[in-house]
Amino acid sequence: MVSINYTSNKSNRNYKNMNHCKIASQKFEEGFNCAQSSFYPFAKNAGLSDEQALKLTTAFGMGMIYRGEMCGAVTGAMMALGLKYGRSKVDDTDAKELTYSLVKELHTRFENKFGSVLCRELLGLADTSPVSWEIANSNNLFKKNCPLYVSEAVEITNELIKKMEK
Q1: How far apart are CA 87 and CA 161, in angstroms?
Q2: What is the mean pLDDT of each run of 10 residues along the chain (166 residues)?
Q3: Which pLDDT score, from 0 to 100, does residue 125 have?
Q4: What is the dihedral of CA 37, 142, 60, 44, to 10 degrees?
Q5: Which of 63, 133, 135, 153 could pair with 73 as two cysteines, CB 3.0-4.6 Å apart?
Q6: Local structure of 70: helix, strand or coil
Q7: CA-to-CA distance for 79 and 93, rounded, in angstroms?
Q8: Cα-only R_g, the chain
Q9: Where are the domains of the chain?
């Protein structure tokens, strides 16, 4: 398996009183994947523990575990919207439709800005072979590109939540 290096070895930060984008960026710098990083500040705000927030999103980085599918930053943001607005009762169709609507807007805005919501396309990978991931890693694409995707996914999510709170 390819070992991806996107860490700057910063850890044990004090996240109190930081905004969501800053927290997400710092989680990414610590070495957590894009999904973990974008979900984390919202999960903490909702009362999840560090362990719960980070374990829950582990498998969603690298476009769904090296498949190059949905960008992990977008996936983490989708999960944040689901955590805040999603349904917990089968007959709560209003919550379901609201969540779907917010996630659709997240996708649209992210895609309008970057041209895609797919990890492999955002990174410009020819395919999703181990060689392509290694090339992306050796070209520092995770360090160069992914912090922006994390930050933007979190910013859009923040804006959607603020819009709902009006």
Answers
A1: 16
A2: 42 53 95 97 95 96 91 98 96 97 98 97 94 94 95 96 90
A3: 93
A4: 0
A5: 153
A6: strand
A7: 18
A8: 16
A9: 20-165
Model pLDDT for residues 2-49, shown as the tens digit of each residue: 444 434 333 334 444 459 999 999 999 999 999 999 999 999 999 999
What three-state secondary structure class fits 75? helix
C-alpha 122/C-alpha 68 separation (Å) is 9
Phi and psi at 97, nearest 5°, equal -65, -40
Burial of 161 (0-12, 13-18, 19+ CB in 10 A): middle
Residue 6: what pLDDT?
39
Q: Tell me the two tokens of residue 35.
A: 């999904």
Q: How many CA atoms lie within 13 A of 6 on its CB side?
A: 28
**Which string of b and e fits 54-78 if b means at least 16 CB within 10 Å?**
bebbeebbbbbebebbbbbbbbbbb
CA nearest 99: which of 77, 111, 81?
A: 81
Structure tokens at 110: 């992210």
Query: Residue 23's closest CA among 60, 52, 54?
Result: 54
What are the structure tokens assigned to 152, written together? 């933007």
- Neighbouring residues of 129: CB distance < 8 A, sequence distance ≥ 6: none
Residues in the chain: 166
